[in-house]
Structures are given as C-alpha cells and as structure tokens.
Design goal:
Chain B: Keywords: Membrane, Transmembrane, Transmembrane helix. The complex is a heterodimer of chains A (143) and B (144). By secondary structure, chain A is mainly alpha-helical. Chain A is built from 6 helices and no strands. The radius of gyration of chain B is 18 Å and the shape is globular. Classes of the chains: A mainly alpha (143), B mainly alpha (144).
Chain lengths: 143, 144
C-alpha cells in the first residue's frame, strides 16, 4: 500500500509532540512515555501518580475527537496487516517495551532529547528491529 | 489544575501524533520498507519533535524544579545492559509486525477502531506477561 510523503504535516505533528514532552517536564517534571503511562496504570500505587497518568491518557484519547471537530474528519488509520499480526505484534511490543524500559516516545523523543546513552542505544536497536521485521514480513514471507 | 494541564498536554501529544501519521500503520510500515513502498515521512516526525524537545529540555532542566512538583523525575540508570537491548530489539520486531507502537496506538484509541483496540489489548497482555516473567526470574534468583 503506497502512502503519501508528508514532510510538512509530519514535522508539524512531531513539533507538537516535542512541545508536549517539554511542557510535561516543565510543569510536572516527568518524561512523556507511552509505555510508562500504560504500565503505571496497570500498577496501582501512588494515587496522585495514577490520576496523572489517567489524565494524560484521557487527553490522548480525546485527540481524534478534537481533530474531527477542527478538520471535519477522523485521522486516517490504514491497517495493511492481518488480525493475527496485530495481536502477536502487540504482545511482542508489550514484552519488549517492558524490558527495554520505554518506546518511541520515552526513549525516542524524551531520552534522546537529553542525550541519554541508554535511549540512543534503545532507539537504534528498535529501529533496526523494525527494519528487519518489515523486510522479513514483506519481502521474505510476503505477508 | 494539575490534572487539567496533564489532560491538555496529553491532548497536544495525541493531536501531534495523529497529524504526524504515527497512528497510521500503513505509513509507519512504509517508513521501514526501504526496499518497497518507502515513505520517509516519519523521519520528519522525530526530527520535528527533537527540534523542539532538545532546546526545550535544555531550558527546562536548567531550572531548579518543575512548576508543580518538588523535583524532576529522571531515570538514574546509565548502563546499557542486556534487558535494554534485548527488550528494544523485541519491541522493534513487534512494531514492524503490527505497525503500531504504544505512543501511536493510545491516541488512536479515540477513533474507536477495532484494530486499535485489539492492539492495545495485546500490548497490555504483553506488559502483564513481561511483569510475570520478571517476577519469576527474580524469585528464582532469590531462592537459588
């Protein structure tokens, strides 16, 4: 499935994400990591921490509705893979981000933005993993 | 007040992710498909994010403390160890199979699309499974 090259909207969206990460650090002193948000919600501990993560998640989940109101259409989601691929890939992603301690947001943006060696190593590794599995899935297996 | 700012920051993050195309598996997978239908857009997402977050973090972390809290919560480990590398590699492999990453999928939950719900359900299963595995490993180490 061919997708359109969108350097401007992608860079604009990226800048919004970078601004959100900066604001969360400036106001609340926290890393913006999707893994940490979901992981923390699954582990009820400190009530304030839990509520904070719930508020971040609620904001994220409200975003498509905001875009629908502003632009008149839902953001595009095209899924070119099978249901088993989504389910198996999802479990594998969950195990990976747990042991890796973060994902594209926590390591890829927040960690790299403060030049953390661990995050740079993690980012290079998960990018390599994704290149590898896309190559295998599309060009070797042909799924 | 704190919950309201957290909600608004989550909203900004989610809107950015959606506008950027990070919630669209077709686009994400094409970024990694250099040998096929390559779409380099996602490089601009990370570029744009770092363009803001690098100077933003520099400015913010140079201050004594965040506005609402007593201190910054930053990871103190510096070691590049096996769990970090093996976990990140595993994450990457799964990302390339499903096309969603956690930060892309969470905002997409708001579209109500079944594929997103399935992915997030599987993600939660994976996180719980990993925690169970880690607890088993720690118990074995303690009793050994």
């Amino acid at each position: 499935m061919i997708t359109e090259f969108t350097p401007l909207t992608s860079a604009l969206g990226g800048m919004m994400v970078g601004l959100a990460a900066t604001l969360l650090m400036a106001l609340h002193g926290r890393i913006f990591g999707a893994t940490g948000i979901v992981g923390g919600l699954l582990r009820p501990g400190d009530r304030n921490d839990w509520m904070m993560r719930a508020a971040l998640l609620a904001g994220m989940v409200a975003a498509p509705t905001l875009l629908l109101v502003l632009t008149g259409k839902m953001p595009q989601i095209q899924v070119p893979v099978s249901t088993p691929a989504i389910l198996i890939g999802g479990v594998v992603v969950g195990v990976g981000v747990f042991f890796g301690g973060g994902c594209t947001s926590g390591h890829g943006i927040c960690g790299n933005a403060r030049f953390s060696r661990r995050s740079i190593a993690a980012t290079l590794t998960f990018m390599a993993g994704a290149f590898l599995s896309v190559f295998v899935m599309r060009h070797l297996i042909g799924a | 007040m704190r919950l309201l700012t957290a909600f608004l920051i989550g909203l900004l993050f989610g809107a950015g992710i959606l506008i950027a195309g990070m919630s669209n598996p077709a686009k994400v997978l094409n970024f990694f498909d250099i040998a096929g239908t390559w779409d380099p857009s996602l490089a601009f997402v990370m570029g744009g994010a770092l363009l803001v977050a690098v100077p933003g973090y520099r400015l913010v972390l140079g201050r004594p403390k965040p506005l609402f809290e007593q201190g910054f919560q930053l990871p103190d480990t510096k070691r590049i160890d096996l769990p970090l590398i093996a976990g990140s590699l595993t994450f990457g492999l799964g990302w390339g199979v499903a096309g969603f990453c956690p930060g892309g999928a969470l905002p997409a939950l708001g579209t109500g699309r079944t594929e997103v719900l399935m992915f997030v359900g599987a993600l939660v299963t994976g996180l719980l499974l990993a925690r169970y595995i880690r607890n088993l490993m720690q118990n074995n180490l303690q009793t050994a």
